[in-house]
Amino acid sequence: MNIKNLCIAGATLFLLSCSSSKKENSQEEKIDKLIAQMTLDEKIGQMNQLTGLGLSDDMKNSIREGSVGSILNELDVKTINELQRIAVEESRLHIPLIFARDVIHGFRTIFPIPLGQAASWNPQVAEDGARIAAVEASAVGIRWVFAPMIDISRDPRWGRIAESCGEDPYLTSVMGVAMVKGFQGDSLSNPSSVAACAKHYAGYGFTESGKDYNTTWIPEELLRDVVLPPFEAAAKAGCATFMCSFNDINGVPSSGNRHLNVDILRNEWDYDGVLVSDWGSIEQMVQHGIAADLKDAALLAANAEVDVDMMGFAYVRHLKELIAEGKVSEKIVDEMVRNVLRLKFRLGLFDNPYAKEQESPFYTDDALLKAKNAAIESAVLLKNEKNVLPLKNVKTIAVVGALADAPADQLGTWIFDGEPSHSITPLAVLKKDAGDVKINYVQTLKYSRDKNKGDFAKALAAAKSSDVVLYFAGEEAILSGEAKCRADISLPGAQSDLLTELKKAGKPVVLVVMAGRPLTISKEVAEADAVLYAFHGGTMAGEALADLLFGKAVPSGKLPVTFPRMVGQIPTYYAHKNTGRPAENVQLIDDIPVGAGQFSIGATSYHLDAGDSPLFPFGYGLSYTTFAYSEPRLSATTLQKGGTLTVECDITNTGKVDAAEVAQLYIRDRVASLARPVRELKGFDKIQLKAGETKTVKFTLTDDQLAFWNADNAKRAEAGEFQVWVSADSQSGTAVSFEYK
Ligand code: NOJ
After folding, report:
1. Which of 549, 582, 608 is the endpoint of a domain?
2. 376 and 340 housed in the same domain
3. Is residue 288 located within the same domain as residue 208?
4. How close is the Cα of 234 to the center of ligand 1, in Å?
5. What is the per-residue pLDDT across 618-676, written as a single tens digit (0 to 9) for each?
6. Pocket test residue of 245, 279, 310, 413 for ligand 1, highest count of atoms within 8 A of CB
7. How far is CA 303 from each of CA 44, 216, 258, 556, 730, rounded to the nearest angstrom?
């Protein structure tokens, strides 16, 4: 770009920003006028979110009186439009409603679960999924979705890990921002855009022992370095709303947490969107034991500036009284109402309140193609002994397992509006595209928890008479998601035994796992010849898997979360601290001589029965080809404060197949005032490489990426040595060093 063009671009940007700030100013004036006309009851009504009751008289009256501001879980477009008509035509101030819904990884066309999408390491996958969900959901009048879920999740026992982007703050930030972009489109006021909701603010993924809704203890350093970055990134990307989490953080539930909601969200990040409670989370402060009753809970939430009470009835029942008693200031309530009205203006609802009753825009060719691509990119190849995959020269295939033909389960958790009748299962595709290949299908286990071994003999016979076995195992959709936590995360039911049985046939066994979380599958990985981890891949999972199994597509997914060998290793994540005695000289339980004496000199940090390594590290994933990484090249040996440093690495596709690779940039701060992680992800690039081709990836480091939350409560990079890797996962690669000055 030359200087002249740069000036024109600058002037255009300036004019655009002037016109958008003018728009915002006139919008704020309109909001002022509206607030000035509102009774206290009407204000409180805007802060009240109720679940849909269809066209019930109760709901109609609440809308007429202005005692409800938004409605969740209403789905029928005609009902939505009629309720909206009552709000706009029959309520005193004609303020439109917003209709909200949990649209997490698709409305009708279901994409892979978010954990799967994160495994694609491709933000475009996440943006496409959110855009298609927005188009489909807005078609019935939904303009607010409760996604993305950007809770850092380091405990696979927690069922909601399925809804997350995994363990890493950087990867989660990138994928979360992409989802916000997809949901909200170019402009929120576009009728096909929906307000996104960054949830659950904050710390929900750190619940004790992975049990949902449980307690969390999160020191400020962990909060700032790990938990909050995705939320800050979402706020900066213009995410229209935030949702409180259910958990207490260090004793204070999010719905009453001024530090999170006021100090950080409003004051530090200057956030002017809506903060909604989770379902009943204001009321639940009574059960938490920090509010004596509902009125007390309303007081805590209002003073923590939670704008909207989702199904807690605390504000409608008690806020007026609290204001009269002088315990909550009406000025603060005005600010909270302002946030809600601002969202309604931003969504264009004052000008354009109704959904167009149009022909179904669901399952378009484009949506199905993108969902299929997402499922392809989400699958992670964990093992491929003797290049069993892609399948070649097979005449007969045994297809076995509860997940081979499970249309509902492959959709995964949180798909209230997904339709299993539209799912394309692996079995359906294998049968349809079989041609001359014979498919021997023996389901054997009817669902993932099935323990009935009655059909094992049939399955073994099918395996014996086939060239290869495709075994589809995993978890039913209902075993992950909200409140679906497991203490034992192995393959449920008799699935593991079935694998052992199938191996007796002496044929190659390909294990395809469909699950909502990492499972502890050490034994199964050892037994199977190839393992493809597909998560719950959504509507098009079957077509995607068939393409991968037969080599029409090449696996390119990488794990967004560490896979433990056994539950006792949890939490296990790549960005751990080094400790004073990092694991070395690992002596496993059976290597300890009988009668050995107690010692501690030279002892290090690991488990006797698991060693120190995970089953698979964060960032790991194989391909049908191989890649070679050069040593990273730095533009300088020092990075000056305020400066930049570039890191380059050559990556060569050393195999015979064109494929994609995710190059990952990690750093380590060698000596700092607080112990720092052994590696931290700071960038990644998914590149396409033809067989034999070499490409250079380039990353730029600034001091912002080196900074961390210090013990004196400030974020700062500290001078000293840093190591850098560009590698294929979080454990491989060669480090080079530079000095930060
Ligand atoms: C509870 C869940 O925690 C939250 O994620 C969801 O959006 C709300 N319920 C609304 O259904």
Report:
1. 549
2. no
3. yes
4. 18
5. 999 999 999 999 999 999 999 999 999 999 999 999 999 999 999 999 999 999 999 99
6. 279
7. 14, 22, 7, 48, 43
